[in-house]
Fold this sequence. Notes:
The protein is an alpha/beta fold. It folds into 2 domains: 148 residues, Aspartate Aminotransferase, domain 1, CATH 3.90.1150; 275 residues, Aspartate Aminotransferase, domain 2, CATH 3.40.640. 41% of the residues lie in helices and 15% in strands. The protein contains 17 helices and 15 strands. A 7-stranded mixed sheet has the order 4-10-9-8-7-5-6, sandwiched between helices. A 4-stranded mixed sheet has the order 1-2-3-13. α5 runs parallel beside α13, α6 crosses α12 and α14 packs parallel to α16. The longest helix has 19 residues. The protein is globular and about 70 Å long. The termini are far apart. The chain binds pyridoxal-5'-phosphate. Pyridoxal-5'-phosphate binds next to α6.
Amino acid sequence: MSSPALSTLDALIALDRDHLIHPVAPWRKHQQRGVTVLESGRGAWLKDASGRELLDAFAGLWCVNIGYGHESVVQAAAEQMRKLPYATGYFHFGSEPAIRLAAKLVEITPASLTRVYLTLGGSEAVDAASRFIVQYYNNTGRPHKKHFIALERGYHGSSSFGAGLTALPLFHRGFDLPLPNQHHIASPYGYRSAAGADPQALIAASVAALRSKVAELGADNVAAFFCEPIQGSGGVVVPPVGWLKAMREAARELDILFVVDEVITGFGRTGPMFACEAEGVEPDMMTLAKGLTAGYAPMGATLMSEQVFAGIADGAPAGAAIGHGATYSAHPVSAAIALEVLRLYDEGGILAHGQAVAPHFAAVMDGLRDHPLVGESRHRGLLGALELVSDKATKRGFDPALGLPDRLFDAGYRRGLIFRSFGDHILGFAPALCFTEDEFVQMAQRLRGTLDDVLREPDLRAALK
Ligand code: PLP
């Protein structure tokens, strides 16, 4: 399809300005700036409504892991829509794709997880997990276990509860969060941690922080610890290998549930199918979304152990319904899409391809360490970040008045490259698993060009040590 005529595009921009509220956006600033309309995608490439080709090094919103334009996914969706576009899961009804998907997820996730609740995305998966945890402790005679611990810089979506587990100020300000039963401990952020970058020291510091927070709250009062194996929206914080395992063991000893939020890290993003797999971690619960359907339709999942499932199921009054659900829980079209996407990761070779090209991504990231703006590059699999600083020795950032994040994003866009430009001068990357070696070469060129463009601006030069 050709790009919309200019007048059509102008009309769209005006309609957007007047009516559409954008997620996590500065509302008034967005109105002034106007929307950038995306029109089509193929492989790792997007085209905007003006016809500009963009290399998407962020897979949409770290979700389009298989790349755009897979016809077999479209067919799976169309077939399911034709056959049965909707089936409720209420009243003991179900649909074949949802049942098969639940079984498939149990097969491919850690062995501790045996039961699956299918949601509409990651926020709802986290929200469901927290509600199930409350129900679990109430139903198993420990109603005082109601405090939740998560990591600073963590992101667990923006539901009323999940946004409080999230530890990014933006999601708290003006929303009366975090709640009194939500607590945060320091993130294993090697580049800026008091523990320094030493892996063992970082792991020990996190374990000690968890123990001390549980001691402060009283072990009998703590329900669960939530974490991302690699923190995404907090700036791609990559903990040392062994960190996840150590935190899992600590949670077990402390008798609190260990919930791993693999909404970003799942489905090959960090190398293996799930980040838990790399360290042989068996969590009590896991939340998934994004790569589950690779963004082709909304869907997430909350997985739980048999112990949690049985605690809820058998502790409820006999025959009483567990009051959690939504019209679109386990939607058959999303489930059919997810099944085809999972097939593509495996039989389609996309997971293996992602693993094979990860060294090229690492080379792009590390190859920019010499750039005057880059303080650190960090990555695992196809998830990475560059942290920009004005002084490499002191790791000093930039004056927010420079408006650097928007300038970086805009400079990247002009060079035909999309990445995430975080507020604290961290650039996030999550290329689709289908990226080719040549696309990584193009990414490296465009990224260096972007940083050079910004660096040529006099106020930025002046800010550098
Ligand atoms: N958890 C993590 C780790 C995420 O990164 C996200 C989204 O980025 C969410 C939960 C929320 O997922 P969603 O945006 O699908 O609601």
